[in-house]
Amino acid sequence: MCGLKKILWVISTILAVSISGYAFVQYFILGPSKSGFVITKIQSGEVLNQLWYTMLYIHAFSSLLALVIGPFLLSRKIRNKNLERHKLIGKLYFICIFFGGLTGIYLAFKATGGTVATLGFGFLSIFWLATGSMAFYRIRQRQIQLHRKWMIRNYLLTFAAVTLRIWLLIFILIDGLENYITSYMVISWLCWVPNLLVAELYVRKTGTKLKSDLLDQKFS
């Protein structure tokens, strides 16, 4: 089981770093005006003002940074090597979630796909902020196990940046660019709801195992 966890950690970390690198080049080197996401919005007749672009930059930077550092926070091995560094990086992660979540709510109101996409990305940002707040609260209370569970939930929502692009590629290959807006409406929910369900199943499974281990130790 430990081997499988390590493989999943490596794969998810590679995906997170790859998507972050791609998005960084797209938004901060080439410029957002050259991204398909922005081009589609402009072609559909939307007027994007300077405030929208500012929010996009803040959202992109904070979300991508959280996406990259998240796997290293969840790694027990890395955490145990340097607890002080873990705390410092953790604070940076929560700052990223705060700014990423707030700007995400703003951007959701102008999401491609209308009301369906607005609700999808809006709820993603709200749950992202809520799970991050719970993770922060639990660690402040020194409830480490509960903190870790909320961090798992939160990072799987952060990982929506990866799953969104994977689903987008799949939908384009299957349904074509001509149905992009309809696909985007579906993806606004599909990119994070399954992630959260997976996180919840994992948290419940590991929670049950932890209780079982404690009972075994108590009666052994």
Description:
- This is Membrane protein (DUF2306).
- Pfam families: DUF2306.
- Keywords: Membrane, Transmembrane, Transmembrane helix.
- This protein has about 220 residues and is an all-alpha fold.
- The chain has one domain.
- Helices cover about 85% and strands about 0% of the residues.
- It contains 10 helices and no strands.
- The longest helix is centred in the first third of the chain and has 28 residues.
- The C terminus is likely disordered.
Entry summary:
The chain has one domain (11-212). The chain contains 10 helices and no strands. The protein has helices at 2-29, 36-43, 50-74, 76-81, 83-108, 114-140, 144-158, 160-175, 180-190, 193-219.
Question: pLDDT below 50 for ≥5 consecutive residues: which ranges?
Answer: 210-220
Can you give the helix content as a percent range? over 70%
Order of helices and strands: HHHHHHHHHH
**What is the molecular shape?**
globular
Q: Roughly how many Å is the radius of gyration? A: 19 Å
Q: Into which percentage range does the β-strand content fall?
A: under 5%
- Major pleated sheet: none
Output the number of helix runs.
Answer: 10
Mean pLDDT: 87
What is the SS-derived class? mainly alpha
Number of strands: 0
**Number of spatially distinct domains:** 1
What is the rounded distance between the termini?
A: 24 Å
